[in-house]
Structure formats: C-alpha cells, structure tokens
Amino acid sequence: MSNFTHIFQTYKYSMVRITVRTQSGDLSNGSAFHIGDGWLATAAHVINDVEIEEIVSEYCGKNLEIEKIICHSDEKVDLAIIKTDLDLSHYLTKTTIVGSPEGFEQTDHIGIGGHLDDWIGDELVLSKVLLMGYPPIPFSSRPVLLASEGEVNAVVDKYNGPHPHFIISNMGRGGYSGGPVISEYGFLLGILTESLVMNNQSEELGYSSALSIEPLLVLLRENGIYPVKNKETIEVLLEGADHWDDKT
Questions:
Q1: Using an 8 Å Cβ cutoff, are 20 and 27 in contact?
Q2: Residue 198 above 60 pLDDT?
Q3: Which residue has the higher pLDDT, 159 or 175?
Q4: Which letter does DSSP use for residue 112 in this model?
Q5: Which three-class secondary structure state does DSSP give residue 16?
Q6: Is 13 exposed, middle or buried, given 0-12, 13-18 or 19+ CB atoms closer than 10 A?
Q7: Residue 63 per-residue DSSP state
Q8: Angle in degrees, CA 62, 177, 182, rounded to 5
C-alpha cells in the first residue's frame, strides 16, 4: 500500500481555498491549486454565478488578489484557471523543512501529468490517488485542508461531456470541487469536478469524478500561458500530439 505522507507534505502548500457567496446568500468553499507563476486551476462551477469572498493560500493564509479568470470555452468542460498574485518564493528560498518524510520535495506547484486523452486506457485502474480540498467540517473553528487516500475505480467517457473522467473511491463532499487528484506516482492525475449521482441523491452517495488533464493543457496553450514550472510538459505533450495527428 502506498504511503501518501510525502506527497501530501510536498503539495499541501500549493493548495488554495476559494470561499464564495452563492445566489441564495450562503457561504460555500471550493478548492484550487497552484500550477506556477500565480496561476491556479479549479473547477469552473466553483467560481461561476457566485460572488467570490476570498481566495486564501494554504501557506501564508493571505487573501490573494485576482488578476484574471479564464473558463474553458466549452461549458460542458468544468474547468477554469485563475491568475493571482500568489508567490511562494519565500517558502522555496527562506523556509527550512525539518523532519520531512522520505520522498518529500520542496516545491511551489503541482506538476501536471503526461497522459493525454487518447493515451488513457485502464492502466491506472486500482492505482492509488490522493485528493485534497476544503470540505466543511462540522464544529471546526476554521476551514481546514482535508487529504483523502483512494484509488482509481474506472475511467469513463460521459455522454454529457467530453474528455475522460477518472472515477475514484474517495467519498464525494462539497468543498473538494476544484481540488487536485494526485497519482501515487506524484503527478496531477485530474481535477475533482463532481459527484456523479442520479435522482437528486446526496453527493456523498455518488461516484467522485475527476476530469483528466488534457483540457487543462490545451486551455493553457490556447491562451499563451506557460507557467515556468509546467512549461515543458505543455509544450512537449501538445506539440508531440499535434505532430502525431499530422502524420495520421
């Protein structure tokens, strides 16, 4: 069984909480994560049709300034990126981590995986994953980052939306939306977008579903956004895919 302690400790400071006020006036949490140069990735429904109250970095507890929000052009793809003033250079250069677990890496971003849609089969089924986010905890005095270990149960193509989705065993809870699903191998597997339920059942009874990473890579490239820490992944994967398409 995989030990996710080092992965959690490596990536927890890349996490960001998004608190919004819904149209009904209620406060609700969502999740986002840093992919480099102040850019956050999240699920579009976390920030659409709501008033953003605050976006807070897990590392510094600071309310971040929003510079730009870009949602995927296809409304069926629940994905958005947010440009903020998040800067974790102090953590990288001035913070010394003592007693870190074996395998820990001091980093300021989550590395995007290398699995494009056409390359995804069932190879990752039953592999382990780490989900992080900000579901509300009853009686907690403040929002707390939750980490949950699970496994990939299936890969599905939804009839109501494009791109493969990973079905994971982690229980669906409000507040995980937009959070990263990280493979036991240390890369971003997908973005938690929804709990698949029928007949208006509770989301805790559904299947947690994570959007794969190709639409994120494409969204970044289409907008000329190449976060330094993930630049090589975007260029190599998508240019390689384009070259392969041209030959077929």
A1: yes
A2: no
A3: 175
A4: B
A5: strand
A6: buried
A7: B
A8: 85
The single-letter code of the amino acid at 59 is: Y
The residue written with tokens 């392969």 in the block is 244
Is the whole-model pTM more than 0.90?
yes
CA angle 85, 193, 49 (to 5 degrees): 65
Q: Give the torsion through C-alpha atoms of 149, 154, 155, 158, to 10 deg.
A: -110
- Which neighbouring-strand residues pair with 56? 17, 63
Q: How many CB atoms lie within 10 A of CB 166?
A: 26
Max Cα–Cα distance, the chain, nearest Å: 58
Interval 228-236 mean pLDDT: 85
Contacts of 216 (CB under 8 A, 6+ apart): 35, 41, 79, 81, 112, 191
**Residue 1 above 50 pLDDT?**
no
Of 205, 67, 182, the residue nearest 133 (C-alpha): 182
| DSSP letter string, 28-47 | EEEEEEEEETTEEEE-HHHH
Q: Identify the pLDDT of residue 233.
A: 86
